[in-house]
Structures are given as C-alpha cells and as structure tokens.
Structure prediction request, 95 residues.
Amino acid sequence: MSAYIHGQITVTDPARYEEYRQRVPAVIAAHGGRYLVRGGSVEVLEGESTATRQVILEFPDMDHLRGFYQSPEYQELLSIRQAASIGTLIAIEGV
Prediction:
C-alpha cells in the first residue's frame, strides 16, 4: 500500500532552504519516492493554515517512507530544513 508524506512548511531562511531543496530530490528518489506536490499556490478551503509551502511525496509503502526519513542522507538534510523553516510532516498510509 502506498505511503505519503504531507509537509506544511513555512520557509524562514530562503537561502538555506534552497540548499535543502536542491539536494533532497536525489535522496527521495533513492528510496523509491516521488513528488506529487512541491510548492505552488495554496488556497485554504477550510480551517486555518499559515504554511506557505505544501509538499506531498509518494512512496511504494511505509517501509520505503521510513527508510527515506531515517536514512543518514536525509538526517543530514533534515537539520538544514529545520534550521531554515518551520512546519509539520505527516506520514500517511493510503491507496
């Protein structure tokens, strides 16, 4: 069953975030993941959200998703992302 990461991100340091943005696609692909959504305009239809950047990744299954997130390569990039933005990442198992 496919698994997804939904990220709601507000970039606080665009220059530093750019480094993350340039390096992370190769790590995602190495774990079987692909972008479904990366940036673009956001329109809140219900509730409240202050996040200005939405990202949705698809992986073959939750094991691949966890392999990506827990990999040493991503952990290095994670520290860059966390220093350059605030947000929430959610793992979702779905069809």
